[in-house]
Amino acid sequence: MKRLVLAAVFTIILSGAVYASDTADAKPVNISFAQLLAQVKGELPRPPDTGEPLSVAAAEDLKKDSRYWVTIQAGDKYVRTALLEAGLDIAEIGDKSVSGFITAADLDKLPENGFTVQSRQTIYEYAKKHLKDFPAADARYHNYQETIEVLQGLAAANPELASLFSIGRTTEGREIWCLRLNSTQKGPAPGSKPGALYMGTHHAREHLSNEVALLYAVWLLEHKNDPEIRKYLDTLDIYIIPMVNPDGAEYDIRTGKYRWHRKNMRPNPDKSIGVDLNRNYDFLWCTQGASHSPGSETYCGPSAFSEPEPQAIKAFVPARPNLKVAMSYHSYSSLILYPWAGKDAEVDNARDRGVFTAMGAAMGKLTGYRPQRASDLYVATGETGDWLYSNYGIFGFTTELEGRSFYPGADIIDRAVAGNIKAALYMLSVADDPYKVLR
Ligand code: 0X9
Ligand code: ZN
Predict the structure, then answer these.
(1) Angle CA(339)–CA(345)–CA(348) in degrees, nearest 5?
(2) Is the CB of 208 under 6 A from ligand 1?
(3) Is residue 63 part of a domain?
């Protein structure tokens, strides 16, 4: 991950920083979007490559990892849902099969449960073939500390519009940071204007989701004087939480070698690590498309909201009844997904269904992604968007960003950010009254 050479690149602002907490050693910086994009594109100096043959080293590191990459026969969403329940972490969906990661223990049980495994390879073999791009080459992505530095820089440089606060701590004690953009209301105090929430990195290895949420925040502030953006900043209450699962994201990159980690860092009683945070919310919790086995990639946890990260979101959302729309970024597949995810049904309320469909279609056009009901892909319970909508009537979407792997390289960042900013702005344009999309 990139070490931002902040002092050399950005203007340091020595006063006027407004932080809600944990900022004693903060280093406020003023970041221009052009500069940040230049950094992202690699046009500004980065630390020299160590020359280490990282693909080999990275693969070696996975020799002791017992997971497999498998392809399994699956002709429809019902089989895909059952496979999630059997512990498969579905990454790719074909016409007649699906592929993804699964633990050795879950893989052993597949044939007796009637599944046909078409191919399997250890994660080590998979990594040797697929690590075309190395973590060093992905240095433009922002790790947790770099993400904090960007967020702090934005808050410090735009105290009239931006404030930064933590919504809670993770399993390992990291703060989950939230940037608020609002010209009159700051910090964690509730807001009165219509609210929009953007989240990234529920899943550890989906680092592109952090980039999209973070660089969207940078973009909004860089364009704060454009009349359209100014109107949103004046009339709306915008929250951006780029890393819901920083423990997992850090674990995924800690050695400089990717680990394909999905879950959080909860130590489970059976010594496995992690709960799938997108199965831990309490809408129909763990009834379909999720696994009760702690070692599984789709482990829903011992109970709904057992994990501190979804707990933080659970404390955050009802305290803000002004929230109207939400986006949770994931990767990959180029999809815009909306409820229901946890049941194979349309949303009952026809007007709400119309809003989901119309907003999905609009964001699909702007991103080039396919809009669809989430359960048409597979049924998965305990998912973020379902919880937001079922409890609070928030129009909660999930975007599966573009790319053809969890590690699509740094070149994808610009395009993914640009397309998704358009959809995120569209979301702002309807946040005051989402039902207006029906008119
Ligand atoms: O399975 C998930 O949590 C999401 N996909 S990911 O590859 N990022 O893990 C998709 C959630 C959307 N819900 C359903 N398709 N049911
Ligand atoms: Zn995900």
Answers:
(1) 75
(2) no
(3) yes
